[in-house]
Amino acid sequence: MSAPDRTDRHPALAAADPEIASLVAAEEQLQADTLRLIPSENYVSQAVLEASGTVLQNKYSEGYPGKRYYEGQQNIDQVEAIAADRARALFGVDHANVQPYSGSPANLAVYLAFLKPGDTVLGMSLPMGGHLTHGWGVSATGTWFRGVGYGVRRDTGRVDLDEVRDLALAERPKLIFCGGTAVPRVIDFAGFAEIAREVGAVLVADIAHIAGLVAGGAHPSPVPHADVVSTTTHKTLRGPRGAMLMCREEHARAIDRAVFPGLQGGPHNQTTAAIAVALREAATPEFGGYAHQVVANARALGEQLAARGFDLVSGGTDNHLLLIDLTGRDVPGKVAAKALDRAGIVVNYNTVPYDPRKPFDPSGIRIGTPSLTSRGIPESEMAAVAEWIDRVVTAARTGDEETVTKVRAEVKALMDAYPAPGLPLG
């Protein structure tokens, strides 16, 4: 379905570069018309969107508030201080650094703060639901450091802390990561902390996916247990594409020095401002309601999918995310994801634990409810969403494009009934 050429929404851009303006307008329409189920995506508010595009873009600000290497920072210092203050208050941490450009550089800064090349790090294996930067081999973290991976049990799809403890005692890591990108269950931060203390490791909780749920009280907080908390600022937190590192006071200097000058130069001040706005929004009662609704929608969707015979890794979800093994449906994940995309349902194909297929052509798909919840779509609509997924996955196996087209029209009707926030449409 082609998008209308609404470049008038951005007149200066349209005049300067109509080709890019047209693509931006097409993306706005695509985000408005499709059911976005990628768990790492969301809709930011108009306020966050505006903050991301301000004249703060014009500034260089190497250093930290009150200790810059450039003059003219009297406004920037206040913006960054406000963002850090709000992060500390929202998450209840001693120290917050809001300068990391994104989640991967934030995690790299943790390595720089605590490890030397060749030191051992224990993290969740990527095929089991972890992240590249938790020591996986193709990442710099697995190239410069010795990565050891833990997984999940075949029978439950959940992390086995006994296995984690055995690995930690055998490998003696200096750094342990908990969290990941395809973890549908509550993370036992206290259990990980006990293991980290036993082997003398620094515990890092990567809550990039669940930060908004933690802030909204819909997931336990790692703060009482972890030495460092790493997070992106988008996903469930509904902020811009950025990151934060939060830690105990004893680690503040090491973390700050690792971010700057260790890994990067001047922060992206327009992003820092948008982070500040998002953190203020996340401190409201309305955001707490949103976070709990994300989980309620995910659980309802999982129940509806399970009732239709879908195999949910770990049997369901405690958070915003569902990982679906399509082996029993005789449809590869990539084939299903592309058919769903044609139907206006945006997911990503994903490996599942112990997947016999290759990562670029895996057995599963990963879905989540942050974006649809931001649109105000309630639990009562999850039956329709599950039915659409069921129909399209079946159609993907049989080559039934007529069904895909019908579902696309039905999806569009629901999206029209629940307009997306923050999009400059009208």
Relevant terms:
single chain, about 45% helix, alpha/beta, about 425 residues, Aspartate Aminotransferase, domain 2, protein homodimerization activity, Aspartate Aminotransferase, domain 1
Tell me the major beta sheet: 7 strands, mixed
Average pLDDT metric: 96
CATH topology of the largest domain: Aspartate Aminotransferase, domain 2
Shape: globular
Tally the helices: 16
Rg value:
22 Å
**How many beta-strand segments?**
15
With strands numbered from the N-terminus, the spatial order across the biggest sheet is 4-10-9-8-7-5-6
Number of domains: 2
CATH class of the largest domain: Alpha Beta
Beginning-to-end CA distance, first to last residue: 18 Å
In terms of DSSP E residues, the strand content is 5-15%
- Percent helix among the residues? 40-55%
GO cellular component, one term: cytosol
Main location: cytoplasm
Pathway: One-carbon metabolism; tetrahydrofolate interconversion; Amino-acid biosynthesis; glycine biosynthesis; glycine from L-serine: step 1/1
Modified residues (N6-(pyridoxal phosphate)lysine): 235
In short:
This protein has 426 residues and is an alpha/beta fold. It has 2 domains: 9-21 and 293-417, Aspartate Aminotransferase, domain 1; 53-282, 3-Layer(aba) Sandwich (Aspartate Aminotransferase, domain 2), CATH 3.40.640. It is 44% helix and 13% strand.
